[in-house]
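Our consortium's second objective concerns turning raw sequence data into structural hypotheses that experimental partners can test. To show how far this objective has progressed, the report includes one record in full. It was chosen at random from the queue rather than selected for favorable results. The single chain below, 404 residues long, was entered without modification.
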Amino acid sequence: MQLFSKRKMWHKRPLKDSYDVVIIGAGVHGLSTAYYLAKHGITNVALLDRGYLGGGGSGRTTAILRSNYLTPQGTPFFSESLGIYETLSQELGFNLLFNQMGRLDLGHTESAVFGLRMRTEFNRALGVDSTLVGPEQIKKLAPAIDLRAGKDLPILAAMHHPPSGVIRHDAVVWGLARAVDEGGAEIHTRTEVLGINRSGDQVTGVRTNLGDVRAGVVVNATAGWCSTVAAMVDVLLPITTHPLQAFVTEPLKPFLDVSVSSANLHVYVYQTDRGEVVIGGGVDPYPTYSQGSTLPAAEELAKHALGLFPCLRDVNILRQWTGLCDMTPDYSPIMGEVPGVRGFLVTCGWGTWGFKAAPVAGKRMAELIATGKMPEQIAPFSITRFAEGRLVNERAAAPAGAIH
């Protein structure tokens, strides 16, 4: 009896000299765009990645999914993405290990609680399931938490967002990659883009370490490296790249079945199905492309995590890692065409929440490429908003991800 399938997840193919669409970056955003392009009948597509599949930001995320944002542009967008994730395992025929555990955003001060109340009401008005809860309900949802009564920054209230969850990041990459391969697109890892070719204001293809490739459409889906790629067509993105550090502990018996985030402490905590505790926080305050982890960051995260969960005092840290976040001034993404460079599209500026947005971002970017019309869901995120003064300020919805 054959216990394991010999079917390959995806195939290695020779790089052709011409495609309809070239996507730079084979992470979740590039893969999602290719996946939805196939649904529009566009399959002559190449995904190019200088590393291994999903080895960039997609492999360095803590993969928290949520839709409790603040703006009328961002909230429905992330809500649609979360809805896609809820059925994506069935659609791909691949278990993505989505644990819809819910989330608590803590408020430690009157001003923080005011902000949470505003976000909660805004969510409810837009059909997103969020509720403001008090200390008693918080303790029921997270029994191990220290409510900090009598201490500095006591927990006064929290925004409870039941649809939130966590997902296995590599499973999402593998599931999408298999579907993309079956749909006819090609995945080319260890293929570095060295330049982008143009004829006047029209993109004509890319230069790679394996030779030139022609294409009428080039998509920049390179997360922390998006500014470097955009510079190849003389486009200056309003983006700075910051490291974001996290760590995971040794496995423990289950004690936490909701993710917890604190704006004031700049930390978030959740426990995986394997028992490990994932702890992360805000991006580092300095811009860099370094992905090296630092002891001061680990100490800071550990200190704040212990402020919420003293029971973790004697627990060992297993591993620490760093990803790169492409931060815009208004904490919202940049999506769509770039004026003055026809055929060059960007899906970047995702900051600390790119993984949770990948399905809807890919779906709408594919729609734009296939129809030539800007979908209304991503129109507010055009790069032109910065010159036109139409910022989409989502900083308040990034409690543990703000620069501090």
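The partners drew two points from this record. The chain has a mean pLDDT of 94. Residues 147 and 155 are 5 Å apart (CA to CA). Both points have been shared with the crystallography group to help prioritize constructs.
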